[in-house]
Design goal:
The chain is an alpha+beta fold. The chain is 24% helix and 31% strand.
Length: 131
């Protein structure tokens, strides 16, 4: 039984990039699709496709490496867990590595990066940090 699909998604990305995999497939959910979208727009992954298969579909994430073959994602960490939710006010949104990384939050205006949340003046639940 999977209790935290988001943590599972992040772990698969972490493990696949360490193993130098080209791409991974994970069961689709709207939250995971949005996370993949943010990782892509922030330049952490090459891209992603939503694949229609089975009852829920899947997301295929293409991982990204630098010229030396090192993964672009140095770290990806689940912040708010089902057993311990971490909520922040708009003026307490954490900076990851002084802005080199990105926090992803779920807010009343949808899932967005820490930068967007500050711009839109909303706080929310910190899903994860990527650097």
């Amino acid at each position: 039984m999977m209790t935290d699909p988001i943590a599972d998604f992040l772990t698969q990305i972490r493990n696949a990039s360490v193993a130098k995999k080209d791409k991974i497939r994970i069961p689709r959910s709207n939250v995971k699709a949005r996370l993949a979208e943010i990782l892509h727009s922030e330049g952490f992954i090459r891209g992603f496709n939503v694949v229609e298969e089975g009852p829920q579909g899947a997301i295929e994430v293409q991982l990204k490496y630098d010229n030396a073959g090192l993964p672009i994602i140095n770290g990806i960490k689940r912040v708010s867990k089902p057993g311990l939710r971490i909520y922040v006010a708009k003026d307490r949104i954490p900076k990851v590595l002084n802005g080199l990384g990105v926090s992803i939050l779920t807010t009343s205006k949808g899932i967005m990066t820490d930068r967007d949340a500050r711009a839109q003046n909303v706080g929310g639940e910190v899903i994860c940090s990527v650097w």
